[in-house]
Amino acid sequence: MRRSAFRRSRGDGPFRFASTGAGIVLLAIMAAIGVFLVVKAVPALQANTSHFLTELTWQPNATEPVFGIGALAFGTVLSSLLALVIATPVAVGVALFISHYAPRRLASALGYVVDLLAAVPSVVYGLWGVTFLVPFMLGPSKFLNDYLGWIPLFGGDTVVGRSMLTASLVLAIMILPIIAAISREVFLQAPKMQEEAALALGATRWEMIRMSVLPFGRPGVISAAMLGLGRAMGETIAVALIFPATFNISFKILGPYGNSIAANIANGFGEATEVGRGALIASGLILFLITLLVNMAARFVIARRKEYARAAA
Amino acid sequence: MTVQTGIQPISSARRAKDRLVQVLVYLAFALAVIPLLSVLWLVVKNGIGRLDMEFLTHSMRNIGARDAGGGAYHAIIGTLEQVLLASLIAVPIGLLTAVYLVEYGEGGRLSRTISFFVDVMTGVPSVVSGLFVLAFWILVLGMPFSGFAGALALSILMMPVVVRSAEEMLRLVPRELREASYALGVPKWRTIVKVVLPTAFTGIVTGVMLAVARVAGETAPLLLTVFVTDSINNDPFNGPQMGLPLYVFDQAGRPTDTAVDRAWTGALTLILIVMLLNLVARLITWWRSPARRR
Fold this sequence. Notes:
The complex is a heterodimer. By secondary structure, chain A is mainly α. In chain A, helix 2 runs antiparallel to helix 3. A two-stranded antiparallel ribbon of chain A has the order 1-2. Chain A has helices at residues 12-47, 70-101, 104-119, 122-148, 164-188, 192-200, 205-234, 237-242, 261-268, 274-304, and strands at residues 58-59, 66-67. Chain A has a single domain (47-308), classed as MetI-like fold (Orthogonal Bundle), CATH 1.10.3720. Chain B has a single domain, classed as MetI-like fold, CATH 1.10.3720. Chain B has helices at residues 12-47, 53-57, 73-104, 109-121, 126-140, 147-172, 175-183, 188-199, 201-216, 220-225, 244-252, 257-288. The N and C termini of chain B lie far apart (51 Å). The interface between A and B is large, with 104 and 108 residues. Chain A: Belongs to the binding-protein-dependent transport system permease family. CysTW subfamily. Chain A: Its main location: membrane.
């Protein structure tokens, strides 16, 4: 619909130009991120004496640079997936609590309390993780190893506090607020008529939720979980302080193993040579591409259902 | 013959299941709040001891590896300057983009593309924005590590947040206001500047403050762009400049107890700044929200 002014004003052209330009600047920045990461990654990749995608070791500062993303990408994916498995059920519970269980007067205040989790800076979680959670997790980890050691994930001979599990737990805490916030908005938009119809037919509260709220909210929860996954993958400082920074592939999440692309960038930047910086930029490019894909997929799921569009903003 | 009453009581199995889920849901909320309380408690307990005038007014210059004392003045100054510069870059671009999306886009292809990529941009990892500024500004253009480079990285993280919140606020402005203005012969751009933006002003301010709160705690982009220094540097355009989150990271990585104490106090200062911004922003929305949501 055209809503143009009756009489063209001299200011209109420039103002329209400036606001359109600002939007285009945003697109240009996204493109530039990809372009300049590639530009600075290529020389380092050419100096690499091994295959970047499959090599496990990371020695880009050596005279004969050997580095690859293998172990780092594995650690990134494993820790993020673990975080997702831990965070999603709790987040859905929190969302249901605020949308359907908490007293109406308290609901928004309690929602704000959960949002505060997202306001705590990453480095503070890292500090908390290293000084409190790492020693604290030793007990539960030993317990898991003793009694559930037959599950490969919990197996292994050495059990430490600075493990994949502890890092994933911190990640789970950090992504919980975003998953809970989006799920909450979606649950609140579930059709009131259906809920009341279910209750009128004699359903209990849980049956009403299972029949009308959860089916309606499922796509929203899925995309919220994917946004959380993207967050977890890019999370840097907290896990950089916790991971023992090893370069191997191990599913033993209680053992002294673990690293991620982002953590490696934070830990390795200080002593990186020129090739080293290029190598870190190359790993960052991979991280950028992975998170881009995860985020775009999540946004497509949301965009398919118009009613979610506001909730995910 | 038994008389069938109208309403049967709910069977005990269904009742038990309903109770069980209720307990689980309450438990989930408790589980989410425990880490928050634990973090806040430990930060206050460990941080309050060093929160003194020396911490707020001194840098780390000439403080030996094992020395107590020293402070975060250089980091606080750095963070304030970097966040201010980042806002000066991100707010105009973000606000104008929101104006484009609401007032000029008219659902065309460009506006849908921009809208989609604004969403995607919120998911750009903070470390990647730091790497981008490192690659583009420092390595390709040959600029020095500086507070301004850090501000550039932070502004990339701020922009999508500003766009989204400003867009939502602009959409809340009633169409009748715009039409009344057009009917009086006011051109479109004057309508936007004099009618639409002032109406949405408090909401936009809230959004900007939330965006500032988000980036003020970011460490990873600073690590790659401002470098670490122990000295005061008031000039954000020249030479390494500290930031408060980076200060916490740096001190937490040092092996002595006195350094870890400083890290906790830095964390406490940082949380106080971020929480304060959040709280003020939420209070403004709560008081001024045009349609109070549940």
